[in-house]
Amino acid sequence: MFSRSIVGSFRQAAARPAVMARPAVARAVAVRGYSDAAEAKDEKKAEEGQSDEAKKIAELEEKLKESTKEMQYLRADYQTVVRRGQEEKAKAADFAIAKFARALLSTSDVLSQALKHVPQPVDKGTPLADLVTGVELTQKALNQTFNLHGITPMGDLVGEQFDPNNHEAIFQVPAAVAPKRPDGSDRQPGEIIEVQKLGWLIKDRTLRPAEVGVVQME
């Protein structure tokens, strides 16, 4: 009888740890589940945080692009204003020079005509030779002054086509009686055959149109 009670006690003692172990296992599983859920939640928050940062970076990059474009537009506008101001200033200066230069062109014409009508040949050491030399030097100095301010002659226009922007037709000759070209070919309607007064340019604009004779235009 005594032995049975001892055996029963041992059996109960052996059974107790097994019964008590079940709540511990359950708690461990619960803790692990909570930990996994917390980690998942943290990962989700981290992903959301990264997503928010990416959006902010994208917004900042877009604002930077817009600011860069605005700066480029402002710079282009500024350069345009500066260029226009310089152009207007240059035009005003050219206008002032042109007004004075037109008055001097008459002097240049007189000097050219004087040299053209000097009888040839001119004997050296004579008063006429000294006069011709003085006129030539005066004309040379005047032309240098013109060149300094961008004023240049149009040059020999014979053989070129008449341009109403640069030429003024003083007379017209019918094609049938117009002088032929040096190679013997016929001149075309509107072709310049004679320059009566030299034309002048101030930079890329006409200061004074050339007075010319042309083949009659159809």
Any idea of the CATH topology of the largest domain?
A: Nucleotide Exchange Factor Grpe, Chain A, domain 2
**Cα distance spanning the termini:** 153 Å
Q: CATH superfamily name of the largest domain?
A: Head domain of nucleotide exchange factor GrpE
Strand percent estimate: 5-15%
Overall morphology: elongated
Strand order of the largest sheet: 1-4-5
DSSP helix count?
Answer: 2
Helix % is 55-70%
Written as H for each helix and E for each strand, in order along the chain, the element string is HHEEEEEE
- What's the architecture of the largest domain in CATH terms? Roll
Low-confidence region ranges: 17-21
Q: State Rg.
A: 52 Å
Q: Give the helix/strand class.
A: alpha+beta
Q: Main β-sheet, in a few words?
A: 3 strands, antiparallel
What would the average pLDDT be, to the nearest integer? 82
Q: Give the CATH class of the largest domain.
A: Mainly Beta
Number of strands: 6
Total number of distinct structural domains: 3
Region (Disordered): 36-55
GO cellular component, one term: PAM complex, Tim23 associated import motor
Keywords: Chaperone
Protein name: GrpE protein homolog, mitochondrial
Notes on the structure:
It is a single chain. With 218 residues, the protein is of the alpha+beta class. It has 3 domains: 51-95; 101-149; 152-217, Roll (Nucleotide Exchange Factor Grpe, Chain A, domain 2), CATH 2.30.22.10. Helix content is 63%, strand content 13%. The chain has 2 helices and 6 strands, in the order H-H-E-E-E-E-E-E. The chain has helices at 2-116, 127-148, and strands spanning 151-153, 167-173, 192-197, 200-202, 205-208, 210-215. The strands form 2 sheets. The chain has a 3-stranded antiparallel beta sheet. A 3-stranded mixed beta sheet has the order 2-6-3, with no helix packed on it. Helix 1 (2-116) runs antiparallel to helix 2 (127-148). It is elongated and about 125 Å long. Residues 17-21 have low confidence and may be disordered.
